[in-house]
Amino acid sequence: MATDTSTDTPTPSDDAPQPGMIKADLLAGLVFIVLGLAIFYGAWTMDRLEVRRINPMTVPGLVPGLLSIALTLCGTILAFRSLRTPAVGGWQQLSGALVSGAAGRALAVMLLALIYTLGLIGTLPFWAATGIFVFAFILVFECWLATPRQPLLRSLPWALGLALVTATVVTLVFERAFLVRLP
Amino acid sequence: MFDGLLLLGGGLAHFLTPLSLFNIAWATLLGIVIGALPGLTATMGVALLVTLTYKMAPDQAILCLMCLYCGAIYGGSRTAILLSIPGTPASAATTLDGHPLALQGKAGTAMGLATTSSALGTVVGIFALALIAPLLAEAALKFGTYEFFWLALFGVVISGQLTAMDDPLKGYIAGILGLLVAMVGMETLHAHQRFTFGIPALGGGVDLIPAMVGAFGFAEILGVMKRSAQARIVSSGDRVIPRLSEIFRYKWTIIRSGLIGTFVGIVPGVGEDVGAWASYAAARRTSKERHLFGKGSQEGLIAAETGNSAVIPGAMIPTLTLALPGSAAAAVLIAAMFIHGIRPGPLLMTENPEFLYQIVAILLFSTIAMLVFGLTLTRPLLTVLSVPRERLMAVVYVLCVVGSFAITQRMFDVWVMVGFGIVGFILREMKYPMAPLVLGIILGDLLDLNLRRGLLLTNGDPSPFFTRPISAVICLVIILTILMSIPAVSTRVRSIFTRGRGDASAQS
């Protein structure tokens, strides 16, 4: 009888956990345990509304309390499972991932987004904040964090043009067509 | 039966107007473009478009959102075939055979087959929607507070189980986190503020749309920009329109994948990616050309594309009849329906029976538009893929900010979007699925309200939750689902079945 010798199709379940991920699971498990316990405390100390003669089984803290127990349980299983799984070099891999180029790029996006959202919007007119954000985003990722890097003179016209178009179109469409008072 | 046909005819006639046809055309095309661009998902597209449909009539708004949803799920196949990067997670299975076909110089054939099978998958799902939804809506009228509690829990548990294929525990944790987010704000039974920490903006709870734009939009931007490699597009020069014989050869694969996709769609919160993987796995198991799978199998490509597209109408079945979203994008559609004054749920068939058939009509029109655009605009659509992500993602983030702000016009929602984006990105990096998290936010109130209302009705006695027949069945399914996700239990059960089958074959 002929056997199927075809290569296994990579399905999502084929990925074996990496040592770094096992250690990340341990940290996450601990975070979920702390979070679960904190929510349980919040649910337990929540107003039971006795003065309104509310049935104790219908108090507002019932469901958050049950969910916090479930989260603590899941966090404990996750942490315990991670402790039992061998992960040689896991901490090094995890710390390596946190200081990798990919992490740096993600951090750069976060920083730009936070500067735009928390700093520029509200301080400057919306169109100006948006223009500056788009301009900076394109230049940072094309001329600085790209591999290979683009020459500044090639990216500059695109960054400038797209910043102007985005700032104008988004502001006009939302303020004039949809009557949204932008921040 | 005739009432249904009449309502369907009414639905089709309702949208046969120049305005509706124009909306179908641009929304489907926009959906295809969004789906084709890696990093822009169907859910993100629908969430962003919701903010642009406020001023539209409700029927036209839902029409645009549904067309964009269908177009985006299909559009993901372009990138999957040409770049080996799924444009949306739903197209991940398509890359396995679509890209090898493109590398063999059959990119046109692959795109034509993907287009046709997507359309056929949607048609299979549409039949199921028209047949099953009215029956389910009728059955749902018998559901009480106890059943709705279990249904809400079932949605989160099954979504957690199926979307985290590697690790159901992470799916459950994501679901619990979503449910906990839903606990923030004023609860509906006694009007008590929970976990607001004195912040007035939290009194109304966390809005779904900013949370979803963050979890599916900003988190996606972070995920896309994290990568430094730029993919190479495979050119296509062969014929795009497939021969009928090519399609007819795989008729059983199409029917089976369509049915699997529809069933996956009905299961709350699971979504198109699971539909595609399940269809692909079933086709591979039963195929006579199994050796070709993963190396450029037309059958594999057809199965994946039929499966993910059939999920869309399937997902609308629980969405419309139970208000339980069948997929993440359907969750945004529920929010959009509420914004436009349409109440999905068991009462929909009594309050607004024509709406269900309008959805069927929208799906039919969208499928036709998808087929036309897919087969005729293949080459112009390729230019879309050449837009550098550095330029695209900057604009997308601006839309995420404006989209979150536009709903209630307060900066707090933008901060919610940013917060969910960063947390969502970290969770995704650690392989936590986002669908159960979002489903938890949607179903949290349903779960909380029905549990406590049920206990209020019985004066604290929980027994009806376990003794009423439908409740008992759903409760049993939840317990079995959780038990089967424990490796020790599932291995033991599987070994019992394998032993039983071995004994039976030995006896025969």
UniProtKB/TrEMBL annotation, chain A:
InterPro entries named in the record: DUF1468
Keyword Transmembrane annotated: yes
Coiled coil stretches, renumbered: none
DUF1468 domain residues: 27-183
Keyword vocabulary terms for this entry: Membrane, Transmembrane, Transmembrane helix
Pfam family, one: TctB
Keyword Protein biosynthesis: no
Membrane-spanning segments: 26-44, 64-83, 95-118, 124-146, 158-179
Record-given protein name: Tripartite tricarboxylate transporter TctB family protein
Species assigned in the record: Devosia salina
TrEMBL record, chain B:
Transmembrane segments: 24-50, 62-85, 110-136, 148-165, 171-189, 322-343, 355-378, 390-408, 470-489
Pfam families to which the protein is assigned, alphabetical: TctA (PF01970)
Residues in DUF112 domain copies: 22-439
Top-rank lineage group of the source organism: Bacteria
UniProt-listed InterPro entries: DUF112_TM (IPR002823)
Keyword terms, alphabetized: Membrane, Transmembrane, Transmembrane helix
PANTHER family, A to Z: TRICARBOXYLIC TRANSPORT PROTEIN
Protein name: Tripartite tricarboxylate transporter permease
